[in-house]
């Protein structure tokens, strides 16, 4: 139902719907994210050859959609950047996580390669965008570097999805559905890993004590 509504919005409002859809996706609203650029490629591109379609998609879909996505991603990035430390300091003890440990990870993250990680994960449609924005903010990545590398990753992501939509035409719905299901599975997997880590951190001392006794 949501997917059909998104497709109809893209058909009716064209680029405006694409830009707004990317903004909504970035502020942690659960929508089938591949649908937006793929629908734009399927319904908004009039070119009939792959070269002409690529140019049209790059300038009229991928470029504005990526700019909108990066700008709106600063919402989650900013919350994590400003609110991460006080939240960890206040509630971290319940998860057996300290801000000192986060700072250690931040030092590792700030190795000069963090921009590559952001670009890579943003380019993969299966990775939730808000997770990348939040992680970059939590680890205090420089906002200018974050914006640049986010754009570097979003451009091929949106371009590739729009090209698939143009090539597959109406058949893109099934492809988008499979990508969205895989993305949901990845998100659930990450949640389970985090929960497993927290459980391990909170029970390891009890387990060692049990073995000693």
Q: How would you characterize this protein structure?
A:
There is one protein chain. With about 210 residues, this protein is mainly alpha-helical. The protein has one domain (about 1-210). Helices cover about 85% and strands about 0% of the residues. The chain has nine helices and no strands. α1 (about 1-15) crosses α3, α3 (about 35-45) crosses α8 (about 145-170) and α6 runs parallel beside α8. The protein starts with a helix and ends with a helix. About 35% of the residues are buried. The model has no long low-confidence stretch (mean pLDDT about 80).
Note the main attributes of this structure.
213 residues; mainly alpha; elongated
Compact overview of the structure:
83% of the residues lie in helices and 0% in strands.
Bulk shape? elongated
- Profile the largest sheet: none
- Give the total of domains: 1
The total strand number stands at: 0
β content, as a range?
Answer: under 5%
What is the CA-based Rg, rounded? Answer: 20 Å
Helix percent reads over 70%
Mean pLDDT across the residues is 81
Tally of alpha and pi helices: 9
Which regions are unreliable across 5 or more consecutive residues at pLDDT < 50? none
The end-to-end distance, rounded to whole angstroms, is: 57 Å
* Alpha-beta content class: mainly alpha
Spell the H/E element sequence. Answer: HHHHHHHHH
């Amino acid at each position: 139902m949501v997917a059909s509504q998104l497709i109809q919005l893209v058909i009716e409002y064209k680029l405006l719907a694409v830009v707004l859809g990317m903004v909504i996706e970035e502020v942690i609203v659960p929508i089938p994210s591949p649908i937006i650029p793929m629908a734009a490629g399927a319904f908004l591109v009039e070119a009939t050859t792959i070269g002409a379609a690529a140019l049209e998609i790059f300038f009229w879909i991928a470029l504005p959609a990526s700019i909108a996505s990066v700008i709106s991603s600063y919402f989650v990035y900013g919350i994590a950047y400003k609110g991460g430390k006080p939240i960890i300091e206040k509630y971290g003890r319940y998860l057996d996580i300290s801000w000192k440990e986060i700072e250690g990870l931040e030092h590792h993250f700030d190795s000069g390669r963090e921009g590559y990680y952001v670009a890579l994960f943003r380019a993969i449609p299966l990775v939730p965008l808000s997770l990348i924005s939040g992680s970059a903010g939590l680890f205090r990545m420089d906002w200018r570097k974050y914006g640049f590398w986010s754009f570097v990753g979003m451009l091929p992501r949106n371009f590739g999805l729009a090209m698939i939509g143009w090539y597959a035409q109406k058949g893109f719905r099934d492809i988008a559905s499979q990508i969205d299901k895989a993305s949901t599975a990845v998100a659930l997997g990450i949640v389970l890993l985090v929960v497993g880590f927290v459980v391990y951190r909170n029970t390891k001392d009890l387990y060692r004590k049990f073995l000693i006794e």
